[in-house]
């Protein structure tokens, strides 16, 4: 779905700090959403945690850097890192080019898929959250 100038696929789950989550088999794929990558500008660095790193929902486990911003990445669920996108070490700009595809960041092995219910999901919830965020952060 398009909200103002931002693309937010409605089948995804969203963490309040603008990271998306998609179910892929028994893993969760995670990345930065369109709003966050546009606000950050050109991404120049992504900290890739080691595979097996334990995650606690709501706690910082990584960071992303652009020319004008240093952002924290928070765990959307409890679990552990299964895979980090190694391509981002060489080309962190993939996040800007294709944030929902080649620019994915992490694959997470969740402790409980039921925790997805704590994330923002569904067209109505996504739209109201995004409009609030645009109001809060975008200077027109």
TrEMBL record:
Keyword terms, alphabetized: Lipoyl
Note on how the cofactor is bound: Binds 1 lipoyl cofactor covalently.
Needed co-factor(s): (R)-lipoate
GO process annotations (BP): glycine decarboxylation via glycine cleavage system; protein lipoylation
InterPro entries in alphabetical order: Biotin_lipoyl, GCV_H, GCV_H/Fam206, Single_hybrid_motif
Pfam families named in the record: GCV_H
Domain of life: Bacteria
Signal peptide: none
Keyword Coiled coil carried by entry: no
Residues recorded with modification N6-lipoyllysine: 68
A single Gene Ontology CC term: cytosol
UniProt xrefs under CDD domains: GCS_H
Domain Lipoyl-binding: 27-109
SUPFAM superfamilies membership: Single hybrid motif (SSF51230)
Family: Belongs to the GcvH family.
Function: The glycine cleavage system catalyzes the degradation of glycine. The H protein shuttles the methylamine group of glycine from the P protein to the T protein.
NCBIfam families: PRK01202.1 (NF002270)
Summary of subunit composition and partner proteins: The glycine cleavage system is composed of four proteins: P, T, L and H.
Name of the featured protein: Glycine cleavage system H protein
Species whose genome carries this gene: Desulfocicer vacuolatum DSM 3385
Taxonomic lineage of the native organism: Bacteria, Pseudomonadati, Thermodesulfobacteriota, Desulfobacteria, Desulfobacterales
